[in-house]
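Handout, page 2. Input:
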Amino acid sequence: MRLKLEIDNRTEYSKADLRRIFLAGMRQLDITHRRVLVVYSRSSSVTGWGAYYGTATNWRQQYGQHYADGRYHVKMRLPRPGRASDPARLATSIARVWEHELWHTKGRRHPAMHPELRWCHQPVPWAEGMECRHKEAKSVKPKGRSRKGERQSATAAADAAKTDPRLALALRRLEQAQAGVARWEKRLQAAQRAYARGEDANERSHWALEQGKAERHLKKYRQKLRRYERRVLELTPHEFAGVAAGGGR
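Output:
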């Protein structure tokens, strides 16, 4: 039996490891073709969604055009690296949820499932010995990056942000903070120059107030910059960390 499996992997887990697990599950259920989307979960557990076979109208009403066009049969949500509730048994958890969702694609509903299968506690001897590892991080040369390499890494980090709305929001906030720091640094320098040129007490008093205002805003934006740099580093895949959060204080 020839199997056809299309995986859209938007995580840092090994696509080869995921393919082994998914293909083994398809063999168990005599399924020859499936398309699967793999994304990160918001929780520490593996979850999923499976389309009921032959019910495209219901897909459209419940899940929208993205699933109604039949692009994916199954959507798998995996915990982010380091957040899995049981990392040692991650492959087993993926196999259990995958089998559950495959039964949905064959038309089986929850009431018709055995309790162990319904709650994804069923034994999966076909997945014994399998693992789900992270992708190998690319080695970084000791010398500084070229400008071309920086552009490529920044593009890759931006692509990663497309799959995580929290990262996209943090990157926007980081850019706003960087722009705020640059703007108020210029305002502060201008006020300092004007104060130095002041010819009378009233003029110097005015520019002293402007300096104080600029310093307060600059302090606020620098605090925001540090906060969103940390946030971006928390959410960015490790090989792009430092690229997305690059910027002066």
